[in-house]
Fold:
Amino acid sequence: MAVQLTGTAAGAGLIAAAGAVRRQPPLAVVLMLAGFMLIYLCTHALAHWAVGRLVGLRFACFGLRGTDHPESYPPGIRQLMSVLPMFTAASTRRSRARAGRWALAAYFAAGESATTVFSILAAVLALRLGVPGAGILLALAVVYDTAATVVTAIIPKGDYAKALRALRAP
Structure:
């Protein structure tokens, strides 16, 4: 988890650095994109862990791998998401069985929610700092995150679909 916190802070630092060198567009854009990707990759599992701990879940392991459901992405992005190093936080089956439905829903929804909120905030930060191309990044982030929200709500392996199932459980 310390690596993910550090990665998130480093991502924000890279975006701030992009703002500082905005008069050198190629460098600023590279710094902005690197910072954005760090934030995107580091916040998902961190949020699952933080909310999971808050609601009493225990964790069996932490890992680093590509997406769990590459089939939900269109060709091209599918291959990229399969190899991007994404952090994972695996809660124990026993602690999930003991948790209430609201706790489980919060745990499942936390990852995608954090990814959406923090990636959009990263793009907004870049825009506020005047980084060249930040408006395009923000527009792409909004479109991508909107699509990701819908997809994770309708595919069975999606975090929001899991949260919805948890809420419907007796």
Q: What stands out?
A: The CA atoms of residues 65 and 85 lie 5 Å apart.
